[in-house]
Amino acid sequence: MVSVNPFAEFRQECQNILAEALKTALPEAEVETVPMGKPSNPSFGQLASSVSFELAKHLKRKPADLAAQLAKAVDQTRFTLIAKVEAAGGYVNFHVNFDRFSTLTLESIGQLGGEYGFTKTDQPAKVIVEHTSVNPLHPIHIGQARNPMLGDALARILSRRGNQVSRHYYIDDVGRQSSVVAYGYVKLGKPVPDEKADHFVGKIYTITACLVEINRLKRQLEQAKAVQATEDTEKLSRELNEWTTIASELEEKHPQLFKALSEKISQDANPEEEINRLNRAYENGEPQAKQLIREVSDICLEGFRQTQKRVEISYDSWDWESDFVWSSQVSDVLGQLQDSGYVYSEGGVLEFDAKKVVDTQNLRGKLGLRAEQEVPPLTLVRADGTTLYTTRDVAYTLWKFDRAERVVNVIGMEQSLAQLQLKIALYALGYEKQAENFVHFAYNLVTLPGYKMSSRRGHYITFDEVLDEAVKRAFEEVSNRSPQLTEEEKREIADFVGIGAVRYALIDVDTGKPVVFTWDRVLNFETNSAPYVQYTHARACSILRKAARKPQNPAYELLKENLERELVLALASFPDVFVECAEYLKPNMVADYANALADKFNTFYNALPVIKADSTQLADARLALTDAIRVVLSNALNLIGVTAPEKM
RNA sequence: GGGCCCGUCGCCGAGCACGGAUUAAGGCGUCGGCCUCCGGAGCCGAAGACCCUGGGUUCAAAUCCCAGCGGGCCCGCCA
Question: CA A312, CA A591: separation in Å to the nearest integer?
């Protein structure tokens, strides 16, 4: 017999049996669904129901009496996975029949193998997961790296759930900052990168932005002084000071580049003007500007691709924001929004009245907003006629919905308001179904303990650095532990261990909480880390290798130890964990599950011999258990994109 | 000023969406053990938490509601 979800099978049986018992013993009771939960203590069984507490109220009887009556009324002849039903402390406790349950679970895992646990949804959909979408201006830094880790895990999970998933990278090349790099790049005479492309672009961006900012502040300061605006003068001086400090930092770090850029840029009286001109030209789709900015963006993206390849993340589509501007899509959406009646003009600026949409369409309930919560308006178009980021994002979102039924945006929680306004815009345009299938998957930031990360200021640790360091430390670790391996083997292991550790660390924490970056945390190789789970997987593989036989028809009922039964239960509940994490979009659940299973297995491993068990039959049963653990650990790691190695 | 998120042992953190049984999981760190045994990136044990505070709902609250305090983020003709 094979079950895709053994524990659910048991739960269903308990529910049916209890519902029957309710009908026969307490026909006067009205219960819609019978509550069923995991008891705190295994001696109370594997599932327990607290119906009696509910009923006690209505029937005015003691919970303990009701529970006893229900336990008695249970029809034992219909037990298959249940061993016994008992009343205790007012609860009705269900004990699983381990002989049968172990057999069902382990045989199912043996049969389903790499598919075990991945229960398919009955409503498969086309889903677009947009993630990463780092601006092509500088290398991906550790603060941003949480995004692709989560996004990729989500995509893997949703796809395993039976959805048709497409991964999209939104290239945000429209906006002043792209013109800033391009400007610096031209000033330098369009140099060929002499290092990893995105790092190269990042330096040009930071230095150029800094120099331009200083230039701007100086001019503003002079103006302020001229009209004797003391307050402005003070504020501007402070800002100028800050940027001057940054400039000297940059000059020290990259003296040649800094010198070259600073000489070239100082030749322009007003670099800001140049940049704005380029920006407008790009939005208008002028060929020269198009050619230039795409060229710089492509250089940077090439660097991103290298990093992504390294962490085994891929995208099905790279979507250029500029394409939406150049085609009529943005202006079309703008037109539709204006027709909707929720847009007003204020001094030549177009504003979207999100609050009005919420109020007239009665959306507070659907959006989870409080009664009097303010929803600020969104500026759609500047006075000079150019559009803003969120405006363009509306067009992009509709484009996505032409290709999918569901859209998941993996975007930091600092953009919650913009994402909310975007959703409201969908309602305003009459795309109600789309709005409901639009999900902002928000996550909190990764922060550095010392200072604030800022890509504009060049204050960041790059993702590449973190990966390099992780692999380096993993290499030292492997060399210490397994000196007999060849250099080649060590390098390979160091790679998946180091990268796995980083991936796991960025996924493991609840997305609502910020991650404070420390090397110790991200490069953890001990319990509760990818390497720990990987090691456990390799250990299981090693046992199976050593046994060198595939047990035929193992007698699962021989698995009578508590440690073994706990393992069976843990294995049996993997499908539940998977479904839950897919439905509630909680990738960290998978990491936690894998770690907990590894824990249990290691305890078992230390306490009970597998190959050298007392009898061959018992050894066979334990080998089958070990094999099932191998399969499930591998399936779980697969969901979060971590390699499950046979050796390490 | 308004909104969103968060507050659990010295530190980090599960559990909270769906309230349940006087043992609130783990990990790090501290202290003490374990290789005649299948991989010690491991295992076992000890110490450490009135789950931010105060109310409320309930037979039952870490979990739900209200108020407060503390931290992060957002409220731009930036993205």
Answer: 18
